[in-house]
Amino acid sequence: MHHEIHPNASPATIELHNHIKDALLQSFDNDITGSQIDYDFPVFTVAKNRIHDVLEFLKNSENMGFKFLTTLCGVHYPENKGSEFALVYQLHNMEKNNRVRIKTFMSSADLNVPTATDLWLGANWMEREAFDFYGFRFQGHPDLRRILNMDEMNYHPLRKEYALEDAGRDDKEDKYFGR
Amino acid sequence: MKGTSGNIGQTFATASQVTEQKDYSILNLGPTHPATHGIFQNILTMDGEIIVKAEPTIGYIHRAFEKLAERRPYNQITPITDRLNYCSSPINNMGWHMTVEKLIGCEVPKRAQYLRVIIMELSRIADHIVCDTVIAVDTGAMTGFLYLFQWREKIYEIFEEICGARLTTNIGRIGGLERDFNEKAWSRIHAFMKEFPKALSEFDKLVTRNRIFMDRTINCGPISAENALAYSFTGPNLRAAGVDYDVRVMSPYSSYEDFDFTIPVGTNGDTYDRYMVRMEEMWQSMRIIEQAIKNMPDGAYHAEVPEFYLPPKEDVYSKMEALIYQFKIVMGETDVPKGEVYHAVEGGNGELGFYLISDGGRTPYRLHMRRPCFIYYQAYPSMIEGGMLSDAILTMSSMNVIAGELDA
Amino acid sequence: MTTNVDIKSDYKPEGFEGQGFFATSLDKAVGLARANSLWPLPFATSCCGIEFMATMASHYDLSRFGMERLSFSPRQADLLMVMGTISKKMAPILRQVYEQMAEPKWVLSMGACASSGGIFDTYSVLQGIDRIIPVDVYIPGCPPRPEQVLDGILKIQELAKNEARTRRTSPEYKAMLAKYGLE
What we know:
By secondary structure, chain A is α/β, with parallel strands linked by helices. Chain A is 22% helix and 28% strand. Chain A has one domain (2-168): Beta Polymerase, domain 2, CATH 3.30.460.80.
């Protein structure tokens, strides 16, 4: 299991990281595939099929208390064959002021992920945005459709293989724009 | 006799049929509408004046900031962050700079931090002026808008002295500020601090205890604290619901721990509470600015990070290293350490977060902006269903939905 | 005893003046009336909208140019001011709003985003509203200062003042509209 601690991590962060790691390993054992501290966040990598249970554990169990979902987003790593897409959740325990980041990786062949909308109502639009940009399919989402782009769009624009500019643009010559 | 609801809209009740079927009308509110301040659409299913169901559609101003950020070097992303919550662009700029400073491990000197605090609080006042006056305009009170927007011009003049621009400021640099405040900026700030309280209390007297305003806004679009937390609300909307979460207090950045200010908290989560929380926050911002001016430390206004901070022009023309740094920074060829960092600031609307993944190259690998408006706007249908149309308009303007931050 | 003071006015079109009357051509009189009573439709989408609010407020007052009454209904507006980025999702709506306006109508494109897409050369932003509707005046800036906006509005007023009465039914105008696919 991959384990890395940022050199400047504060003692409080290290203690928090160990506390969460012990609790997660106790309940989920091999499904936690990595843990590290990035700057000031404990980060845990979770297998995709247990992500919902891990999030529920972090939200509901008494000595965890990460009841607030700060944000969730997707990332595309085209060079990591077999785990090209990552989903990153950031949770916040407001009472103790602790934050944690949970990541899960998946291959581009299977982008089905369980939804978090039953845990947090706010995850609804965040997941729609992740679907719009990357194509994650959230199982159990009440209304999974595009949110920011046009409904007719037939590709997922934030993936690395697509260009920033409009593909059909014909009036701006790339060489004058430094592309 | 049983009737069909589709054709004639009436059902004759029989003993076996207890529900009454109504003929609902559909109203398309937006995307271009005078009262929606920004372009987002709501398709309302209405039973007369009462809203039964609301379906929002956003994305009409999606400008692909996150994809754009993957193409631009770090100092060129600041103008993009301007256009997020454009009523208070300096806060977005500072948030981005602090994120990069966290990534590279740069410690900004105290004076620069205090100057940043002054700029951020001034822009918070500007943002809240827009929201509060627009709530009043939506109830029909146009006077407050005209009075307070004069003061927004004064804030713009201060920003102009500091950075040259009024609205999309691109203020500050990675590592601090681009120049210290000059005499004129200080005199403008002092003049503002002396006279704005009078104008704000004038607006206060006009609106806050006004019978009509209170009747319109109390119990209009309420949300409970529990629901607000479930929807990941932050900022004045969450504080109006009763939760005292403020990023400046919970995870202080840029020396906010040195300042003494209170966090106003409401009870009901309705429009009146949101208005009052913002009003009180303006007074608290003034308190913070006063303390910052009084305790302003001496020192440098920027950190020594030659790889990110442009060297002074005299050095560029005479020293070799300065010339190379200038070239690299302008061409965007500075390398950044690899890593992932998340930093949040208290924007005008709540926790504005930047999640930055750097792979060591000249542009970010991934930049995700946690935009408070996008996240709390999803609660809008639940806040207006069951209420009347005019309440829906007021709820929307009291939530301070800025289209730039909604769609990014 | 009163003294007669001639009020010099740059607005006065060419004509023949006498005691209590002023004779000029109909075009000029209509143009004068139109230019000073334009009703704008503020199609504000983003940051330029806030600068427009500042222009409308008391410091840079827009109502001294006759634009006191903003019309949000296209059927009652003369001047379509497009302020802010227009994305491809919004473009059909902009087009529909333009088509709903009655002639004579003018279009003012405020800001870099409306004029050419601005700094957002991305897949979702329309690179300039003149791809879908004809534009009369472009105001550059990101955002333009209120003084620049007033300058643009004065140019629209010049256009309105000097417009020939038959312009809107002329074949050249119809050909231009046909290029945009409008009839």
